[in-house]
Specification:
The structure holds 2 protein chains of 2 kinds. By secondary structure, chain A is α+β, with helices and mostly antiparallel strands. Chain A has 4 helices and 7 strands; from the N terminus they run E-H-H-E-E-E-E-E-E-H-H. Chain A has one domain: START domain (Alpha-D-Glucose-1,6-Bisphosphate, Chain A, domain 4, 2-Layer Sandwich), CATH 3.30.530.20. In chain A, strands 1-7-6-5-4-3-2 form a 7-stranded antiparallel sheet. The relative contact order of chain B is 0.14. Classes of the chains: A alpha+beta, B alpha+beta.
């Protein structure tokens, strides 16, 4: 049995699998809800991906392990932001299941070394990201991340 | 709303606290945090699952329980951050940029 820590997030979003997939893989959209990070990749298995900040620097990098639009995306997760433990690469899986007029998005973040500082901070981060993504897809407006970040800091 | 009802019970809040401390615990491990029968703990976990606050996954012979913080964040966003954003409007250049 695996002893590495994982976190699991689930959110129902009123949208289509295609729009949800686009929200995950289009940098102009991720910029609106992913702490300003624009995702970039050619979206093939084995390719690199990264989230670039306004200054063009990578906030987050990874390699795509598995990609099956609009159902599943698996990639490694190596963060470049300051002030948190440099854990070994972890792994993120997005799974999209249509449920009538909504989609169930399940995000699994695993292979943490334990409840590390990074594991805890990603728990706050994904809550904000997924909640903002839901808001963007359902209302056309993301959350005001600056407020959300200030409130949890 | 299910989330409020789920959070209204102290035993269920204790289970969420236990998962916040260490995510992915089994039923047996979670039973150690509460002075009640296994069946009682299962019932509480069922309510938390329906409310979306806990995700239960089968792993081999065991079921593991994960804290899902997204519904709480969404509640927060719906009310608290809305009011906060009024307060911070004066500083709002960055916010407006994000909401374009």
């Amino acid at each position: 049995m695996s002893t590495t820590l994982q976190h699991v997030y689930r959110v129902y979003i009123r949208t289509t699998p295609q729009r949800l997939w686009q929200a995950i893989t289009n940098g102009d959209l991720t910029k609106l809800y992913f702490f300003g990070g624009a995702v970039q990749s050619d979206w093939r298995a084995g390719s690199a991906m990264r989230y670039a900040g306004d200054d063009g620097q990578s906030m987050l990098e990874g390699e795509i392990f598995e990609i099956d639009p609009p159902r599943k995306l698996v990639h490694s997760f190596i963060h470049h932001w300051e002030g948190e433990s440099k854990d070994p690469p972890s792994r993120v899986t997005y799974e999209i299941e249509p449920h009538g007029e909504t989609c169930l998005l399940t995000l699994t973040h695993e292979h943490f070394a334990g409840e590390t500082e990074l594991a805890k901070s990603t728990q706050r981060g994904w809550s904000l990201i997924l909640s903002s993504m839901k808001s963007l897809l359902e209302t056309g407006k993301p959350l005001a991340m600056s407020d959300a970040v200030a409130a949890t800091a | 709303m299910d989330v409020f009802k789920a959070l209204a019970d102290p035993s269920r809040r204790r289970l969420l606290d236990a998962l916040y401390e260490r995510d992915g615990q089994t039923l047996g491990e979670l039973c150690g945090h509460l002075d009640m029968t296994r069946f009682g703990v299962m019932k509480h976990l069922g309510i938390l699952e329906v409310a979306g606050l806990v995700v239960i996954r089968r792993e081999g012979r065991e079921k593991r329980h994960f804290l899902n913080p997204v519904p709480i964040q969404s509640l927060y966003d719906r009310w608290v951050s809305k009011y906060r954003s009024r307060w911070t409007k004066a500083l709002g250049a960055f916010k407006n940029e994000l909401e374009k």
